[in-house]
Amino acid sequence: MKNLLTIFLLIAAMFYSNAQDFQGMAVYESKTSTADFKSNFAGSREITPEMQKSIEERMKGMFEKTYILNFDKTASIYKEEEKLEQPGQSGGMRIMSSMMGGGGTQYKNVKNKTVIIDKEFFGKEFLISDTLPKLDWKLEAETRQIGNYLCYKATAVKPTSKSDFRNFRRNDKEAGENKKEESKEGKADKKEEKSTNFTDGWDVPKETTITAWYAPEIPINQGPENYWGLPGLILEVSDGKTIILCSKIVLNPKDKKEIKAPKNGKIVTQKEYDDIVAKKMEEMREMNGGNRRGGTTPFRIGG
Questions:
Q1: End-to-end CA distance of the chain
Q2: Which of 25, 51, 127, 208 is an S-S bond match for 265, by CB 3.0 to 4.6 Å?
């Protein structure tokens, strides 16, 4: 079985290698579970049902996104589909949207094993330039149909990125302590204004288990976001609370897209960018703690 699959992949690779102008386009729908985030506001006296509904509508825009992947034999560009900004969207919401994987352009070159991503964070442009993260994929025999393609299952475990807010998990112990503290403050002065901060009561797991489904029929070593390294285009990824599913594929489209790396922004490594985000989040956490009485925070949801 393995020998037949290897022969098939080699033949398909030879076929595509002869197509000098080969290019493809894939559309991906990304959806992240909001259960933990909604619970952060549940039972809060400061949030009315109308405010709760407004928050959930805005959160949907952050947690449900559409991306376009343009690829050739060695490189790809992955970018969020451009949409009109929602009326009244605050700077904090735009920052949070970026931390949910949105915004910017991601360039992957699987031949050189490099990744370049342009990101805006708190009004500053960064150009993350690094080597592609190597995933130790375990190829499974299980298959499933995605659209017109027979896909094979693969799993891997990767370190969790501290700059990707989708990986955050509810810390029930800390959240409970915060609620007790807020309850005491509310008894002292019910008129006090408190800001709702996403960073309160959260932590990040050290590792995340990934399940991917790839299509050997499209023998391109590519996929959405920073997923790659399988003998076929990755059509679906389950990464913790996030599922990314391919909804459309066009091979050799009439309109070719220029696939090149972004150039604007301060050049940093992924680790340096993660440290910058972690430091800013800690600053906001401290600011929020110091402004409990009538203060505000850059990550305030309602503003």
A1: 58
A2: 127
Token pair, residue 285, equals 């956490």
- pLDDT band of 32, cuts 50, 70, 90: confident
For residue 192, what pLDDT band results from cuts at 50, 70 and 90? very low
Tell me the residue type at 71: F
Residues paired with 268 in a beta bridge: 128
Each residue of 139-191: pLDDT tens digit? 999 999 999 999 999 999 988 776 676 666 666 555 455 545 555 555 444 44
Give 3-state DSSP helix, strand, coil % of the chain, rounded to 5: 30, 30, 40
Q: Which residues contact 137 (CB under 8 A, 6 or more apart)?
A: 154, 155, 156, 212, 229, 230
Nearest CA among 115, 69, 95 for reference residue 199: 95
Q: 26: closest CA among 276, 257, 201, 210? A: 257
* 23-32, 116-125, 226-235, 292-301, range with the lowest pLDDT: 292-301
With H, G, I as helix, E, B as strand and everything else as coil, classify residue 120.
Answer: strand
**pLDDT above 80: residue 238:** yes
- Cα separation, 66 vs 245, in Å, equals 10
CA dist., res. 123 & res. 83, Å (int): 19
Q: State the Cα–Cα distance between residues 10 and 71, nearest whole angstrom.
A: 19
Q: Give the distance, in angstroms, between the CA of residue 272 and the centroid of all CA atoms in the same chain.
A: 18
CA dihedral 131, 135, 141, 142 (to 10 degrees): -100
| Residues of the chain above pLDDT 70, percent | 58
